[in-house]
Write a structure and sequence with these properties.
The complex is a heterodimer of chains A (257) and B (148). Chain A has 257 residues and is mainly α. Chain A has 10 helices and 3 strands. In chain B, 82% of the residues lie in helices and 0% in strands. Chain B is globular. Classes of the chains: A mainly alpha (257), B mainly alpha (148). At the A-B interface, α3, α5, α8, α9 and α10 of A face α1, α4, α5 and α6 of B.
């Protein structure tokens, strides 16, 4: 019987780990993990998650308590994995699949590849062009945003991959955007440079941390909420610093020529 | 009038493509791209209409977020996936990226009083988005509980 608890426990902690790594809200992580653990029918089920770690305990008078801690080092938004884990946990709780199947499927989810780099780049390119249209730009602005997006991706792939700091990474990407936007403006003075810069920085803007910070804080997960707010603020600051530096650099360069 | 209507639809298309294409960056499965784009387009449509009606920026933002969050929740229930799947790509166009840029711009070329004003406005817009998400979340939680 103990093996059965152990298996459900492993399933639960794996589900929690994957959702946390994929950037889910804390209440979803805790809820998913708790639901799976409740299937054991044991007395004490405790789950505590923060943005950077997961603590799970399972205890009952009949067994010796099990506790595990997981440190979450890397986080990247992957909504697909969150949805898949959600599906597995729902099916497990409805007794449609066995814990063995569930753990196998969770390990499978962990191995599913994300979109290849060129598709992500293409998506970002299309979305910046979409943003240029949405903010009222014409054909010139759409084209310029496309060029700025290519510059941003270039900076990301050439420089930011080698730097682990997301602050520096965001700053360099927005620097590239502002620099190229102003450069294009110098050659083509009727370009709406504001629209171009705003639509190109949109993919960098911290939409995910802001949304999650709000939902975490209002759920009462203050630790995670504060951590995400800080993430959003730092990201915004990096974009601001980067675009400021890019604009100044370009003005200097153009003046010098 | 006709030109304005045409431009409105062009902008909606822009929002649709922006939302759908950005879904790739969030690793959303292909089958949900259209829904993500529709959520973004509905939100931006609400924002454009309320702005055209000369509503205050904060109220436009709040109303647009309400529409986005509502659409996301309905779609999520219909397709049985977490609401975040549609909420995040939908909310991105509303997020005050422009406000952040204007803060910097006014720091460079205008007075610091104007920069402070832009900062305040951006903060209020973020607050309006927060309130919008919160309102819909709460509404759905209450209706979910009473439905059981």
């Amino acid at each position: 019987m103990t093996e059965c608890y152990q298996l459900l426990f492993d399933t639960a902690i794996l589900a929690g780990e994957i959702t946390l790594e994929s950037g889910a809200e804390i209440f979803r992580v805790e809820d998913t993990t708790r639901r799976i653990l409740r299937l054991t029918g044991l007395q004490t089920v405790e789950v505590f998650a923060t943005t950077t770690g997961l603590f799970v305990t399972l205890a009952d008078p009949s067994i010796s308590p099990i506790t595990q801690v997981r440190r979450i080092n890397s986080r990247a938004t992957n909504l697909n994995r969150i949805a898949l884990v959600n599906e597995v946990s729902r099916e497990l709780c409805d007794k449609k699949i066995t814990p063995q199947d569930a753990i196998a499927r969770l390990q499978e989810i962990r191995r599913t590849p994300s979109y290849p780099l060129w598709i992500v780049s293409l998506g970002l390119l299309l979305s910046t062009m979409g943003f240029a249209v949405l903010f009222g730009g014409g054909i010139a602005e759409v084209a310029a945003s496309g060029i700025c997006c290519c510059a941003m991706r270039g900076a990301e792939l050439l420089i930011c991959r080698r730097i682990s700091s997301s602050f520096v990474g965001n700053a360099i990407q927005s620097l590239a955007i502002a620099f190229f936007a102003n450069l294009l403006y110098a050659f083509y003075p009727t370009l709406l440079v504001d629209t171009v810069i705003i639509s190109s920085i949109m993919p960098l803007v911290p939409g995910v941390p802001i949304t999650n910070a709000i939902r975490d804080t209002l759920q009462g997960d203050y630790t995670a909420g504060l951590a995400r707010s800080a993430e959003a603020f730092v990201c915004a600051l990096a974009i601001a610093v980067g675009s400021l530096a890019g604009t100044c650099l370009c003005r200097m360069a153009v003046g010098w020529i | 009038m006709l030109t304005e209507l045409f431009l409105f639809f062009v902008k909606l298309m822009g929002a649709f493509f922006a939302g759908a294409a950005l879904s790739v960056a969030f690793q959303i499965p292909k089958k949900y791209f259209v829904s993500a784009g529709v959520t973004a387009a509905i939100g931006w449509g609400a924002y454009l209409i309320t702005t055209a009606l000369k509503w205050d920026m904060i109220w436009s933002c709040y109303t647009a977020t309400l529409c986005i969050a509502f659409t996301a929740q309905v779609l999520a229930r219909y397709k049985r996936v977490p609401a975040t799947m549609f909420l995040i790509p939908g909310i991105i166009p509303i997020v005050p990226g422009g406000g952040m840029y204007r803060i910097i711009w006014s720091m460079l070329y205008e007075t610091s009083a104007q920069a402070a004003e832009h900062f305040y406005e951006t903060l209020l817009m973020a607050g309006a988005i927060a309130m919008g998400i919160f309102t819909v979340d709460t509404f759905f939680r209450i209706s979910h509980r009473s439905g059981k």
